[in-house]
Structure to design on (250 residues):
């Protein structure tokens, strides 16, 4: 039996689809009680139903993580429901606007920074409040391969994901002595609904960017997240871990 997280409480944002869904389902498989959060209630409830069908304890909480008040309420609701908050995966994110930097709209910039970077800070802030009282915890922030390198037309996304890595490294140093580990995961191009707008030809081109020759799978990212969440990774904090099929090694 997979019991690495037995009795622990895990919170996942952006958990209605893609990587977040895969992480939530795997948390349940490894014995955690799971708070599934997203702005998409219908799909979020579906993930809860899948977790419960597999024997896991799970609830859904609708939250827009770009709003600090809703992040606070989400963390409070998790503790109210399950008693603790042991593990959190701050995963929610969007691709945002595709424009050259000089053409990037101010509205597009503000939105991507809010959803992909501010939200991680908001969630982290309130998760840490709870974990500091408990004297333990593991937090995984979802960055990207584009948290390490740039790419044209994605100035907002690249900036936000670089920011997530810096925030992770800073907070990890601040709270390591209090028993809280904080790490970042950097997926390459993963075959999820986030790529849904791309044509088959574009997806083929993206796959070719990875020496391994294909897009990643959400479950492959989830496996790393679960490991970082567990005591098997007890000496790991403040690090960035790519799941990238060799993308960054080029």
């Amino acid at each position: 039996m997979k019991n690495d997280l037995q009795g622990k409480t895990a919170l996942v944002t952006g958990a209605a689809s893609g990587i977040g869904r895969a992480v939530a389902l795997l948390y349940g498989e490894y014995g955690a009680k799971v708070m599934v959060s997203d702005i998409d209630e219908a799909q979020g409830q579906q993930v809860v139903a899948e977790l419960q069908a597999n024997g896991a304890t799970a609830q859904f909480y609708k939250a827009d993580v770009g709003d600090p008040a809703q992040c606070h309420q989400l963390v409070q609701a998790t503790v109210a429901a399950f008693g603790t908050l042991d593990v959190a995966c701050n995963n929610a994110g969007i691709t945002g606007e595709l424009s050259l930097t000089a053409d990037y709209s101010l509205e597009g910039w503000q939105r991507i920074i809010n959803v992909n970077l501010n939200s991680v800070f908001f969630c982290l802030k309130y998760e840490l409040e709870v974990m500091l009282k408990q004297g333990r915890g593991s937090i995984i922030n979802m960055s990207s391969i584009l948290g390490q390198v740039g790419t044209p037309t994605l100035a907002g996304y690249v900036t936000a994901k670089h920011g997530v890595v810096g925030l992770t490294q800073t907070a990890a140093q601040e709270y390591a002595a209090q028993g809280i580990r904080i790490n970042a995961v950097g997926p390459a191009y993963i075959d999820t609904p986030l790529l849904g707008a791309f044509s088959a030809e574009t997806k083929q081109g993206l796959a070719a960017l990875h020496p391994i020759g294909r897009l990643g799978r959400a479950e492959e990212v989830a496996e790393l997240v679960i490991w970082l969440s567990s005591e098997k990774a007890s000496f790991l904090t403040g690090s960035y871990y790519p799941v990238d099929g060799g993308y960054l090694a080029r």
Remarks:
- The helical segments are 18-29, 41-53, 68-82, 106-134, 155-175, 200-207, 218-229.
- The chain is about 45% helix and 15% strand.
- The domain at 9-245 is CATH 3.40.50.720 (Rossmann fold).
